[in-house]
Amino acid sequence: MTNDVSLPTDAPPVENAVWKEIVAKYQKPSTWRASWQITDTVIPYGFCWYLMYLARPVSWWLVLPLAVLAGALVVRLFIIFHDCGHGSFFKSTAANDTVGFLTGVLTFTPYYHWRWEHAIHHSSAGHLDRRGTGDVWTLTVQEYLESSRWKKFAYRLARNPIVLFVIAPLFLFVIWHRIPSRNSSRRERHSVYAMNLAILGMAVGLSWIFGLKAYLFIQLIILATAGSAGVWMFYVQHQFEDVYWEHGEDWSYTAAALKGSSFYKLPRVLQWFTGNIGFHHIHHLSPRIPNYNLEKCHRADPLFQQVKPITLFASLKTSTLRLWDEESKKLVGYGHLRTLRKKNQAAGG
């Protein structure tokens, strides 16, 4: 495995020791900042539920936008949950685990089980030989061409934007997170069962207050909003044209972070709702940096600012990318297959 990375500029390769020294001071959690972030997220989220309770007898058209806003706040709650899973939100392990579990209830995500799978994602992102856990299903062009008709159909279905960003997120948070992985340890399995019981308790309580149908409607809107936004964010962070993928010993952790994780430059309001996770190149370089320090770290050194940002408008193009082309080292759309076919026909003719 190589220990340096050439950024998408004329800058020289960056050794691990260089970036480790830069990020070290941003890895220190702040109890005050963490507590304030919980306050400015949980209180508005709870207030949304209160307003929906008041609005429900008046009109569902008043409830709907409040549910969407609550879903946007769940994205921010998930970032808090996510940081707790990395042990970066608080200094205290107990505080991280407690807040992680509680925010897991609100985001319908089992804490220890998710933390285990997400650690695999961080250790294997951009590694072609270790795909399959905590990532978006991605085939190379050659793998796709060699696949059976049914596998091609399944892949096209899975990468369809409606399935990927609308249906899959609901399935993920409502059903998939309720079932432990066969490879999980006892603690991870038990965390799924404990989370299921906690969510059931919350659902029973809120159904008693709102009524079952009203609760299900509100909760599904919240999960659909948060899930779609969250999956989109994750997709853009690792599925862009010049993303990094390598085999075996050619894979580099540093390159996978700085070249395989995007700098998603969002408008300020969206950056707030997404908890700065658009600075994903920094996060993958050092998961021990809490989200409230990511932007500071990005601005601290020209090394990080050399990473080309993806804007909100430009990110829409990523939804057309489908396959990894090992020859050009780019993600490409299905149109690339037609180009290959024409090339082969010309060569054969």
Fold and architecture overview:
- With 349 residues, the protein is mainly α.
- It has one domain (4-136, 161-320).
- The chain is built from 17 helices and seven strands.
- It has helices at 16-23, 31-55, 60-86, 93-107, 111-124, 141-145, 149-158, 161-174, 186-210, 212-238, 253-258, 268-273, 280-285, 294-300, 302-305, 312-315, 335-348; strands at residues 4-5, 14-15, 139-140, 263-265, 309-311, 323-325, 330-332.
- Strands 3-6-7 form a three-stranded mixed beta sheet. Strands 1-2 form a two-stranded antiparallel sheet.
- Helix 2 runs antiparallel to helix 3 (60-86) and helix 3 crosses helix 10.
Primary descriptors:
349 residues; mainly alpha; three-stranded mixed sheet; two-stranded antiparallel sheet; 17 helices; 7 strands; globular; disordered N terminus
Write the layout of secondary structure elements.
Elements: E1 4-5, E2 14-15, H1 16-23, H2 31-55, H3 60-86, H4 93-107, H5 111-124, E3 139-140, H6 141-145, H7 149-158, H8 161-174, H9 186-210, H10 212-238, H11 253-258, E4 263-265, H12 268-273, H13 280-285, H14 294-300, H15 302-305, E5 309-311, H16 312-315, E6 323-325, E7 330-332, H17 335-348
Helix pairs in contact: 2-3, 3-4, 3-5, 3-10, 4-9, 5-9, 8-10, 9-10
Q: Helix share of residues?
A: 55-70%
Task: Please write the string of helix (H) and strand (E) elements.
Answer: EEHHHHHEHHHHHHEHHHHEHEEH
**Overall tally of structural domains:** 1
* Major sheet description: 3 strands, mixed
Number of helices: 17
User: What best-fitting shape do the alpha-carbon axes yield?
Assistant: globular
Structural class assignment: mainly alpha
Question: How many distinct beta strands?
Answer: 7
Bin the strand percentage: 5-15%
Distance between the termini: 42 Å
Low-confidence runs of at least 5 consecutive residues: 1-13
